[in-house]
Amino acid sequence: MTKAERQKLLEEKIITMQTYERDIREKGITYIGGVDEVGRGPLAGPVTAACVVLTPDFDVLGVDDSKKLSEKKREELYDKIKEKALACGIGMCDNEVIDEINILEATKKAMAEAIDEADRQLKEKGLAGVQHLLIDAVSLKDVNIPQTSIIKGDANSLSIAAASIIAKVTRDRLMAEYHRQYPFYGFDSNKGYGTKAHYEGIDKYGITPIHRKSFLKNIL
Predict the structure, then answer these.
(1) Domain range for 8
(2) Are 63 and 160 in contact (CB under 8 A)?
(3) CA distance 173 to 178
(4) Can you give the pTM of this predicted structure?
(5) What's the number of domains the chain is made of?
(6) Among 10, 31, 48, 69, which is most exposed with the fewest C-beta within 10 angstroms?
């Protein structure tokens, strides 16, 4: 495939991934927040959510489900999204909250915090707040904003895909910081997931203050 052909495919993809956003904007709604999370499955660290509000003319090519992208590409797109988005809200729930209220409720709480932050950022610019939400596979009954839950939203909505990248890079950077504090678990590479190196670290050194005890009941 030539460079020109790849460029054309990326241009076509960004148009396709804005289908949900276009349909909502045709109803007179301007500020649409794409919401996604990362970190539901790890044994350690927080669950992290992002709410990203893009402009109708957002034209950064290559934005996709963060799981499909290399770390280098995610970092590159993170900077471009932060530069061009109207708002990028982040929400986190740490391991203690996860252990207390369970991972699904913690995920919803992190999403609600991310939405609140994006809403605040918009209003600080003199804009209306978030008017509609596109959420990856979750319904937020406690959030009083019209919303659409989309299965595999991070692959089908540009706003949700952008949120997946912002959430992923934010959490990965935090886990790299935790690796410097707790260097025996491989947090820089496994990001808290249950790899062999991670389990070996637990066996040898015990758990850290960032471990989710509710995820480790079988070995504690």
Answers:
(1) 3-174
(2) no
(3) 9
(4) 0.96
(5) 1
(6) 10
